[in-house]
User: Fold these one by one.
Assistant:
Number 1:
Amino acid sequence: MDPLVIFTPSGKRGRFPAGTPVLTAARQLGVDLDSVCGGRGICSKCQVAPSYGEFAKHGVTVAETALSDWNAVEERYDRKRGLKPGRRLGCQAAIQSDVVIDVPPESQVHKQVVRKAATARAITMDPATRLYYVEVQEPDMDEPSGDLERLQAALAEQWQIDTHALRVDLPVLAKLQPSLRKGSWTVTVALHRGHGDPQERILDIWPGYFEGRLYGLAIDLGSTTIAAHLTDLRNGEVIASSGVMNPQIRFGEDLMSRVSYAMMNPGGDAEMTAAVRAAINTLTDEIAAEGGIAPAQVVEAVFVCNPVMHHLLLGIDPVELGQAPFALATSSALSLDARDLGLDAMNPAARIYILPCIAGHVGADAAAVALSEEPDKSEELVLVVDVGTNAEILLGDRDRVLACSSPTGPAFEGAQISSGQRAAPGAIERVQIDPATKEPRVKVIGCDLWSDDDGFGAATAETGITGICGSGIIEAVAEMRASGLVDASGLIGSATQTGTARSIPEGRTHAYVLYDGTADGGPLITVTQGDIRAIQLAKSALYAGARLLMDELGTDSVDRVVLAGAFGAHISPKHAMILGMIPDCPLDRVTSAGNAAGTGARIALCNRAARAEIERTVRAIHKVETAIEPRFQEHFVAANAMPHATAPFTELRKAVDLPDPSFNTAGETAGRRRRRRA
Amino acid sequence: MDPLVIFTPSGKRGRFPAGTPVLTAARQLGVDLDSVCGGRGICSKCQVAPSYGEFAKHGVTVAETALSDWNAVEERYDRKRGLKPGRRLGCQAAIQSDVVIDVPPESQVHKQVVRKAATARAITMDPATRLYYVEVQEPDMDEPSGDLERLQAALAEQWQIDTHALRVDLPVLAKLQPSLRKGSWTVTVALHRGHGDPQERILDIWPGYFEGRLYGLAIDLGSTTIAAHLTDLRNGEVIASSGVMNPQIRFGEDLMSRVSYAMMNPGGDAEMTAAVRAAINTLTDEIAAEGGIAPAQVVEAVFVCNPVMHHLLLGIDPVELGQAPFALATSSALSLDARDLGLDAMNPAARIYILPCIAGHVGADAAAVALSEEPDKSEELVLVVDVGTNAEILLGDRDRVLACSSPTGPAFEGAQISSGQRAAPGAIERVQIDPATKEPRVKVIGCDLWSDDDGFGAATAETGITGICGSGIIEAVAEMRASGLVDASGLIGSATQTGTARSIPEGRTHAYVLYDGTADGGPLITVTQGDIRAIQLAKSALYAGARLLMDELGTDSVDRVVLAGAFGAHISPKHAMILGMIPDCPLDRVTSAGNAAGTGARIALCNRAARAEIERTVRAIHKVETAIEPRFQEHFVAANAMPHATAPFTELRKAVDLPDPSFNTAGETAGRRRRRRA
């Protein structure tokens, strides 16, 4: 009988004639063993670890001579680059007798990448673009086929790739002939095969065996910031993350003001399109430099964004998204060339995938959150809230998923706040206020001490205290409410009412002094009535959206809540609940998902099947339009109070010992009148 | 029984319930009846002509009331645009009783277009791009699909078009929303469906019903000239033809000098690519203006060209085509976007089809000649010769077709000739020389008289006589040979040898004075020894190529000869045979095919199946490489004489009464020596 070969961890087994290379056996059994060079001893991706001795479980005994001797190719490879002890090259080692062979994770093509520690969920690597090394037949005058046609034949023969509809862009085709000759009739090609894409494409070509790697960008294109993860397409590893401000901000802070800009200014949409594309090009260059790779190694990008960003990225006037019925130009997922979008910093042939939009107000970012958090697979009723400048809200379980979007504005990100600033050293990021004395203590970015700790002054001497970032303002407002500085309606009390000189007049209202650095020429950092109102509007919008979905589903409660986006990054969940930003739920059923939209983008970048999956899922999601729903307005008004009347946070109020908001607002108003008369 | 409907000329028949519109019946029977608006009484493309009375042949009697009364839609159409007498709109006229209905040619989608009077061959219209009028569902907030997705659904429902993989370029997508709203949820789209193309594409979109037409360019991209036919994609009509010089001429007259330029000058290939693309853009603008259409109505272009032009058009360095084994970067047919080639004068979404190349020296122009002349369908052995700056030669029959290319140079087109000029008023285009007196008579372009006719001087007073064009030089050389001014080796005799003072010394050789205008300040137009040599080289190359293919096929004769390209246009077949340009064949079996490459391009433009056909045909053509074939050199040298020894043109010599080349070449040489000593 032929020798028995057992592969672990798959457990796949079969008998092969003595002399069969391990890689050949693996391929015939469908074992997931990588190879870029196709078994020519060049790429070393097919490394395996044979085991020797007795394996009762498998019923085999493996002799030391089960594989052929270490050969010249392996020796050369080991000398030049080093092979780990116990490792063999699968394409060189031949089977001699029964053997058990382990395929280590790094030799698996479809290795699983743990992407979230919290849920231990894994994604399987199956990117759309992969490298293939091929040996191409030399031209023959008697059979005058083109070099490309012979490359196609080689891909079909050596890699079983159907190249019937293969597409090669002209600039890549122009590189083919010199590459083949420089590589002595061997080349490595980056082959892209999108899910459901009718054409395979050669995105790039290198002479001989290409040592480098291919990368993709997962881009979360937000109204305020553009964040990107530079991801290794072989193993899913994020080698650099970076973000830039969305330069469209100069045309309008929020989505509707950008739509207005497009409506009021002929060519305004084109201006915004050019601005965001230029920013993505800059970001691509920066993140490639940060990751130490050539921008041309970026061969794919996946975008998630809201519908207005989506249309402006595509160069489509977003005017229809500003008025009922909020018709999208296109709702489907899009597979494009990078150059279609003017994204010329990455590889000239790079491919773009944009997740589908759910509706005119519920975009590809919500789809990405759904891909990441999978409410459609949840046994329990889960509320997923992703906060950026807009909030994307999903509610559902495996039976049904609803989605809506709510215009929270950028307040949760610290924008449009009087002393607001971006998260940078010197920015206040944590706030606690003593309920008795009303005195604050703060922490600033770049320093681990609280402001009342010894040495805080020295530690922050260099940066100073410069303003409040997103998380700081949320905590400040929540603490002001919890300490009785602010009443249930959101009004800041006067010094008389609150009993602290930190309540100072500010126009017709009051402000609370969080930090006074004026004595040393520093800033006076206050939380103004306007800041409170901005946060109130934002949290009311968020709450109303969630309530609207609950109404639609006929429920008053949810089993669990997943907080994503600015939550976690900028907003402490505890303080969010004090403010009444989200419906009631036991505290231990509230989890943070980080940048769920960005994670969804990364999943779509690494796994083609995930793209098909989210396209199916999105079609099944039921969309609820907040903008024209009267109940949204009702919920919005009702949610204005802190905490609002409709969903008392009993547990939370106890936890933070929320005092009674007892100061007299009528008196405050009278006080204001007096000041005006003065 | 339901009424019987018989359609002519197809003869298709069927029974339909009374009240069925004629268009509906036609569609169900698969009758070729056009419609752009889908039966909404807008486009009037479905006009039919009902016949009344007794039709013994069909066994029916058609009553005057066989169709429903003329209705309001038809009345309005007739009032506004006029309906020919006897015509009805197929979508409006309903069947009432048995009827015979004729579909006139202009109402047939796949109408046949007679393209060649000579062979009466027809091509069936089946262009890749057609207009479709669709009514699109308005957006609905409860079903928030994109406008594009609803357009796709409408195309599927109203036109049975599978839009699964529909592609819409972003600039077209950007026009979708305003077009739908301006057209009150109706639009006309230009839909492109290439043969074997995996994706259908919307190339353009117009609000409501688009009155205009779509056009395509059939472009013959030659080394010396770029010729284009602007073709109506509905009926195949050529509405304008135009040509420009190929500006690459400044980098080299012939192909090999351009390849050399690319080899010697870094970036030289890119310069030539830019030059030819710019020329095509200019040509597109000019031909559109000439045809009175908007350049954006040009939605397709088909290119035929030799391999060097092919690579330079694509932006591929042609260096490999300059050296054995003459490897093409790609040999397959190419379907591209116009913008891939920088062709931005036509519609921004226009599609390009480039015919396949046969081999490194036998290009898409030869493929186009094969498509036009169909040697692969010939019962007889046919030799097809297409002369431009290169000659494309095909030899074969339905069993086997061989092809080669021969570097004739531009002499046949009148280039590189001492008194050569382009074909314009004042250029000598016809020449006759009296064998006895050796006196010439000529005709010039722009005048119907011969130079010895009364009134010739007055008729040419304005233009003058300025030079010799392509056809003129061929006739001049042939007549010089026929009248004994030139010997079999191609040497021009001295005045002493030829007995005419028109033989004048020219350096170390002689020239023949065709026209002397110096007395009036005009030019001295001569045929020099260099001119004779250029023509000899060209004709030897052509003849040697044809002989090589005959050797390969093991034949000494061919059944018929088809002359194309410069033949007919610039070269009189009779004189070509005097010169021994082509192998022997009975004169009545020699036909002229005009611009066969251009015709092939037009066929591919008008008919998708023709594209698939030529791709199949090209794979079966056997290529013979002249450049490295020793026998080609042998044939070339042997063919230098006029006429050469290996294939005496007995019949022709009789026909033109070819005198014996009796002057003494040794004496001539002695005469030259004498002059040098003087």
Number 2:
Amino acid sequence: MKIAALAGGVGGAKLAQGLAKVLGSDELSIIVNTGDDFEHLGLYISPDIDTVCYTLADKANVSLGWGLKDETYKALEKIGQLNGPTWFKIGDSDLATHLMRTQKMKSGETLTHVTRDFCELWGIKNRVLPMSDDPVRTFVDTKEKGLLPFQEYFVKHQFELCIRGFYFKGIDSASPTKEVIDAIKTSDAVIICPSNPFVSIDPILSLRGIKDILKGKNVIAVSPLIGGKAIKGPLAKMFREMNIEPSVRAITDHYGEILDCLFFDQIDQVDMALEEHSCIILRATNILLPDIESRIRLAAEIVEFLKATNKD
Amino acid sequence: MKIAALAGGVGGAKLAQGLAKVLGSDELSIIVNTGDDFEHLGLYISPDIDTVCYTLADKANVSLGWGLKDETYKALEKIGQLNGPTWFKIGDSDLATHLMRTQKMKSGETLTHVTRDFCELWGIKNRVLPMSDDPVRTFVDTKEKGLLPFQEYFVKHQFELCIRGFYFKGIDSASPTKEVIDAIKTSDAVIICPSNPFVSIDPILSLRGIKDILKGKNVIAVSPLIGGKAIKGPLAKMFREMNIEPSVRAITDHYGEILDCLFFDQIDQVDMALEEHSCIILRATNILLPDIESRIRLAAEIVEFLKATNKD
């Protein structure tokens, strides 16, 4: 069984980790959002790629939700003393990742190539694929400050500002990589991980040709909401600011016709109309993924479901 | 009394620290070699500027002779794990200096400007002046491997290779900064610190116009040799490889007509011919500078001497 998983940061990384334990190394490709990528202190930073890789390598700082475990922040402290920016918390070990990636990309390597090499050195067996090697930059349109680069909204302003919309700069001229297209085309199913649909999954879906390929595929999403709330991050708040009730229906409506099945949490209610008239299969289960056991359990449940229902 | 001191790294920084304690903040400008500067991991690194600044700010790692005290090396360790270069040992706190400097220079600031700002933030009252804002890169011509960038010879190969000569790439098109020229022109005397003449002082002296200005100045050098040996580094070995006996005479011959006085160590012998026929004043004293007391003592002795003998 070949699976292509679409993922953003923390939530996506959790399910990806479960899938990596359940599937063979050749069976899983993880396609990761690069819309959050940005340049900071002259370094090319790819937050979602790092979160996915650090999680798969069991190096992630689980309590913070970003960066590496057992991290120190001496460089950051000294950067602050030199009046440099400290709102984006780069740890000393994490700096090595950014320095090395930046150097390699400056010398002409693609993000895809660098990510493949880092995965090998970190002992990650599955393929982690940046959605594109072309620059796509997510901007958030806010009532208070207009368009802001995503990391400024998310980290600097701690997503306190009110959302009006999203803009993926560069999306029209960006191509999904050959590796991404191949991974989706050759997959038996595509799993949309429980990442933020607006800022983690939509950049991937907005790349040229991706939705067309997905229409012919069995696409399963795991809801990023539990009890109408996001585990972490601004998703429920974003839905409300867009005048949408954060609910199971909000997720099925958002993904629309590409979606064949949604795994949602058993504590969530599904309105009758959705259940009766939608052609999307709705599966209630436990989608809280606090530890490796729960991630493996949900991944196994999805794989079982796919084996039983695959279109092909 | 206005003093312009010419300095390289460790040895120069020691005397500069003593001079900074003895002279007022407006009385001392330290002109620092930038021939050792290089790019590494995408960072602009200025080893002599850093050694001088860290020493003046009492942040230097005295036992290592480079970098900061209380330093950690987590980023370096992870860079190694990603197969990156680890021969140049950058600490986590030191990284902040290089990251911030690189960013500022990329945004168009000069090394002179960045150094001034860092000095202010580090509480350094004296002016630390890079010799030039134009790139000058010291290469060492070795018997074994031909021309090598200085840091590769010095750090990577631990100066084990045999020297044939020196080459300062860019020296013909580099200008001393306005600040450097002003500091020398307005000085009552110039002190050549006990730095390596070949690779720390010669790049400064080789800049367009510098020797001409120095000819009209009272120039005092402190010998970088004690008992025919360098305290640290390859100077005695370099002299021998150039078929010159490392001695007091080697230093006076090296600096030639620009030199008015040499402070050398009391354990060194001066040959009779030099003493009798040279017009250079030779002063034997204790030039070993292991601690702040010895640095202040030598600095005070030189300033006393200058007050008594100044040409003007």
